Amino acid sequence: MNEQIIQNYLSETIESFRSYKKLAEKAMAQVTGEEFFRAIDAEANSIAVIVKHIAGNLHSRWTDFLTTDGEKPDRNRDSEFIAESDTRESVLEFWEAGWKILFDSLESLKIEDLGKTVKIRGEDYTVVKAINRSLAHAASHIGQIMFLAKHFRVADWKTLSIPKNKSAEFNLDLAEKQKVETEKLSRFEVPPESSGQANSGE
Amino acid sequence: MNEQIIQNYLSETIESFRSYKKLAEKAMAQVTGEEFFRAIDAEANSIAVIVKHIAGNLHSRWTDFLTTDGEKPDRNRDSEFIAESDTRESVLEFWEAGWKILFDSLESLKIEDLGKTVKIRGEDYTVVKAINRSLAHAASHIGQIMFLAKHFRVADWKTLSIPKNKSAEFNLDLAEKQKVETEKLSRFEVPPESSGQANSGE
User: Would an 8 Å CB–CB cutoff place B1 in contact with chain A?
Assistant: First the structure.
């Protein structure tokens, strides 16, 4: 039973990372090239910079996760906050590569690894704490990407959540959809896609 | 060993929630009353609205967490996106109350509860998935609060992370601090506070 809970924690966490990655990508897909690099004040991070920072963090924390310090000596954190010589393509390549390192690492973890300890900037972290911290960190910055993309697109923004003043309608539609699906599907089939949308309609 | 991992997961998660709550509060403390309610475009959520939404979500999800659907029939989600008749005090009271429900509920969970299933809008969620989803949701909106507060305060913003172009310096300072602490503390004492700052210097 306990082993099942831990196995479940690991697969749920991987799923959460995937759904936040997807939310960020759906938000980014809506902005123009200029908006991708636009900062709303002299100190604010652009979407490009936030993407570089998330990716730089993932590279550093998840390369050789169990065996080396999560803050790599060759990480240039300050450079993540500058995107002047980057293209949208180079930023998104770095993003993909960072997530690949995360997923490869998470997917190779065994249950017994969850009881181990890793180091981040010389401090001890349980593996569970390092995972939690990484998910919350990514989610907090992806929230910013979504906020900025929506701000730039205002009128023609395609919502990634429940539209304003549509919560009651959404709940009714969902109840109806679930009724139909319950009639259609046996309990061993795939659940409706909505359960995978971590940030949708919270 | 497995029981230890699950116990550890629960306490780490509570700690992560606490540190994101604190980050939000440190950010909010820096804005004026006008900025607290300011929306940067006609569709954008103000800090007040984001706070109401996080709190409304926590109330709904964490009241009678194990025994009732996480989307409560009396939740008025749409009203969370309007703050016209609220004061800063009323919004922060709602915020505190929401977090209290979360912490009371999380702290009362037993290890065997982590193997149970709960419902959100009629869909089944493992307890672990519901917890992960709640943490990531709160973190994503708290990232937005921090982004907005920093935007409003630009020049006199007191950073909650590592200042720009100070990453290398921060790592050196930390290494020095850890050296001194290792000399001072036995391994059974409390670790330096920095390990509790979930979003600081990622």
Answer: yes
What chain B residue is nearest to A60 in terms of C-alpha separation? B202
The confidence score (pLDDT) of residue A95 equals 98
Q: Which of B111, B194, B202 sits opposite A137 (nearest CB)?
A: B202
Structural domains in chain A plus CATH codes = 2-158 (1.20.120.450), 161-202 (no CATH)
Compute CA distances B80 → A101, A168, B27, B90, whole Å.
38, 13, 20, 13
Would you call A60 an interface residue with chain B, using a CB distance cutoff of 8 Å? no
* B79 close to A (CB below 8 A): no
DSSP A32-93: -HHHHT--SSTTPPPHHHHHHHHHHHHHHHHTTTTTS-SS-TT--GGGGG--TT--HHHHHH
Task: Decide if B193 touches A, using CB distance below 8 A.
Answer: no
Rg of chain A in Å (alpha carbons): 19
pLDDT at B16 over 90: yes
Cα-only R_g, chain B: 19
pLDDT at B155: 75
